[in-house]
Write a structure and sequence with these properties.
By secondary structure, the chain is an alpha+beta fold. It contains seven helices and six strands; from the N terminus they run H-H-E-H-H-E-E-H-E-E-H-E-H. The protein has helices at 5-8, 11-29, 39-46, 50-62, 90-114, 129-134, 152-171; strands at residues 37-38, 66-72, 79-85, 117-119, 126-128, 147-149. It has a three-stranded antiparallel β-sheet with strand order 1-3-2. A three-stranded antiparallel β-sheet has the order 5-4-6. A hairpin with a 6-residue loop joins strand 4 (117-119) and strand 5. Bound molecules: zinc ion.
Length: 172
């Protein structure tokens, strides 16, 4: 049991980590240790390929979710890496990511609302009104007439997702 257990039980946090480290790295990302640990020892503890463990730790490091310090063995002169998980940073990082998603979604919803769209039912290609007009409302691929297309369902789905994001952001 680690201090991050509650944090890691959150599906949003799990999805965030999975996006960063990939499926291969999840056994490492989901099993942080509270104290400093050498990568080889962590690999042994988790019964995983040391290469995957090292790679995952470096990905976490690049995302500010792990840190390391080098320790020199006096006898052999070799360096070992002592790793720490920095999962205290997760809520803030996640918050930032979700904020970016929310902003992008808002722009996208605005674009969808502000534009009229036309579609070729045969090819499934969508055109903005201006494009469709330039094409005299004929599909450039197959020549069939372009039909007006409602994007209400799409906008509605985006608004639902947007609402979820706003709620998640309020929780953090
Ligand atoms: Zn077509």
């Amino acid at each position: 049991m680690t201090e991050f257990e509650e944090l890691l039980s959150d599906e949003v946090v799990q999805a965030y980590l999975a996006e960063i480290v990939g499926a291969e790295g999840m056994p490492v990302a989901m099993n942080p240790v509270d104290d400093e640990i050498v990568d080889e020892d962590l690999a042994e503890k988790l019964d995983l390929d040391p290469k995957i463990v090292r790679r995952t730790l470096f990905i976490l490091y690049e995302n500010d979710l792990a840190s390391y310090r080098r320790d020199r063995d006096e006898e052999s002169g070799w360096y070992t890496y002592l790793w720490s998980f920095e999962y205290d940073n997760i809520p803030e990082k996640l918050n930032k990511e979700m904020g970016k998603l929310r902003d992008a979604l808002e722009k996208r919803i605005e674009y969808e609302r502000d534009n009229e769209f036309y579609i070729c039912d045969i090819d499934g290609i969508r055109f903005e009104f201006d494009e469709a007009m330039d094409l005299s409302f004929n599909c450039p691929e197959c020549g069939s007439p372009l039909e007006p297309m409602s994007n209400d369902d799409l906008v509605e789905a985006m608004e639902t997702r947007h609402e979820e994001l706003v709620n998640e952001l309020e929780k953090v």
